[in-house]
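Homework-ish question, so no full write-ups if that breaks the rules, but can someone show me the predicted structure for this set?
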Amino acid sequence: MTDYRTPLADIRFTLRNIVDFDALTGLEGFAHAEPDLVDGLLDEAARFFEQVVAPTNRDGDTVGSRRNDDGSVTAAPGLKEAYRLYVEAGWGGVGFPEEYGGGNFPWTLSIAIQEMLTSANMAFSLCPLLTQGAIDALIHHGSEIQREIYLEKMISGEWSGTMNLTESQAGSDVGALATKAVPRGDGTWSITGQKIFITWGEHDMADNIIHLVLARTPDSPPGTKGISLFLVPKFLVDDDGGLGERNDVSCVSIEHKLGIHASPTCVMSYGDNEGAIGWMIGEENAGMRAMFTMMNMARLSVGLEGLAVSERAYQQALAYAHERRQGRAPGAPKGVSSPIVDHPDIQRTLLDMKSCIDAMRGLCYRNAEALDHAGHGIDDDDRRRGAQLAALLTPLSKAWCTDLGVELTNESVQVHGGMGYIEEAGVAQHLRDVRITPIYEGTNGIQAIDLVGRKLPLDGGAVVRAHLDSIGVTLADLDGIDELASVAGHLAAALDATTKATEWLLEVGSSNPLDGLAGAADYLAMLASTTGGQILADAALAARESGDADLARNKALLARFFAAHRLARVPGLRAGVESGIDDLALGRAGILAG
Amino acid sequence: MKVVVCVKQIPDPADPGELDPDSKTLRRDVKLILDESDSYGVEMALQLVDTAGEGEVHLVSMVPNNEVSGLRTALAMGAAGASLISDECLAGSDALGTAKVLAKAIAAQEPDLVLTATESSDGYTGTVPVQIAELLGLPSVTFAKEIEIDGSTAKVKRQTEAGYDDVECPLPAVVSVTAGVVEPRYPSFKGIMAAKNKPVEELTVEALGIDAGEVGWAGSRQDIVEITAAPVREAGEIIEDEGDAHERIVAFLDELKVL
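A: Not a homework solution, just the prediction itself:
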């Protein structure tokens, strides 16, 4: 086991060179985010998450959070204290509005801090993450009174939040949900029903838990058009903000999962007795719209989990590769076992992890940067372009980074050899923890559908074409640089193949959507890998300008490595994208007939 | 009540860099952080001011460059301001040279109480606190685990090997605080934002009325003769029990002459 060390140099490099952080400070309300203050925040956040949160990760996994017979849930050892310190330090509020006690910093900085929180303990990070989603829904859709009562305590973290969508018959198909909301005649609603997979639905870390619950009002239209959003607090809140009676909501069980054991995944029951009291958020039947508001941020955060857990798994693999001696590496003296990091295949594996991690960090942070422009842009045009780029990048961040999360944590297990398969080594946990990320917050299959079905057609394809053009700009910048010639070659081929696949989807996908859906996952991998290649090329170019020879050498080699091992595969994916629906339909009728 | 806390900015012990073969001291041209052993004094000072209900905590620190990142941590914890003696001529200062500079800067603050760590985590001389007290003509209490202010008296529980001594002394006084006796708070992000605007007064040696020849390499009364790397810890011997393990262990301990 190794301790988590925040990759501060990499985080700073990404904020300064992959993201244009200076431009962010020029946006409305961000002028206070000056470089030395941002540096100070990053330093102290790093120290906090390394020292306070990272040490809880193992016990969180081995002991986990437990439901007691009375329905209460006791968080895994150490987490209650870590959460108390987290609230005291106020890290959850960095990116939220000042009027509710936040710091009003760019979301890009929040994402950097969230990376540290998630690497330190992903299961723990989900409590602030779900709270963040609930805050976001309240900011955009809550009434003034609701914002006054709830936001400050949720932004501070004194109260946590949950999102209640899923029911046993309504998973990816949210429209099938059956939880009922009936007016009580006094402006409040009586909520009845059972929700499953409610992350941190019950626990002992916060004084109150604010559940946001999707439910149907009487006579609502079927499907997603008839869903409304309700706020159901664990403890009712008095007019003066104090805690009143316990609401009729309880945790009836928690799930036994493959990973994230410290995060209690609850079955929540509403209205078993006198009826749970809820308040409607926004308008009746507009619950799905409220969900979509926060989806971009939530999906980016899940993508970030793929990055964050990979980073920790990489640190562990690198340390182990130096410590573990096996076999004689080429050129090593006879009779001496070499540290396995001297073996070319281990070097290849570790560099694959490192180059993908850099690319993922660049993608997630650029995605956050686009969200900042969308929300705080200098004019309508800047805001519109920010929103469109964020819309395009979000499924890439979510799906590509979580698929890579599984792949890279798996590589970390592989570097550990037999020990990696033994739980005591502590590296299998990362693979188990990260395995949920391609599933929740919209499966990666749904992300691919979102990309091809909703995002490519934006502005008649202009949004994706503008993004591909920006990759072309990077390509032009690589021209004539000898040590990046292979990057230019592979990036050009990947861009060409991705552009052709994009045009095929825009043309064929609109006339026959099933053909588009059939190739969606391969297309997402193409566009994301090519974007990753662009990011590492941008990093190599920026490092050349820095005057730091070591940095320039390292960033160049990571760009070359990624180009040869990942970008080079991109043209091969095109056949899958353009293969169409026919064989799938044939398979469904025959091999998959059941 | 005004409490002055001496704080040192040191290279990060988790990434300490290397020794400079010429000066035979730690290279300090890396990023510096607040010495963890000083964070206990800062925390204790903040608690004492809280208990008193009035007053402030002021930091005093010295560096050969104008590094402030470690000071910012202590300011973010809640200290009100800092005096930073920043002067190239301070490089190479020995303990007494350091104490002379700090004592002058402390005196200018007219504190009711001066807190220090028992020793720094890079130099480990452990003599600066008592030297400051002597130079200022103040009582010195060392190894405090608890401090209570009662009017113009400090009541200190002074940690010893056997337990603790109850010590009382008049204020102002210089008290060194044992590491680990309080839980230093982590700066909140709002504390970090506030620290940005807190005053850090930069002073030169000349401004303190000290001759540059008394400090740094010029004034140092110590000479570092030689530095050597700490021996690498060797792997221990593993004794497999083939029925005679107890005898071999006894023989091993006998050889060490610990029996």
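Now go work out the reasoning yourself. Hint: Chain B touches chain A through 16 residues (CB under 8 Å).
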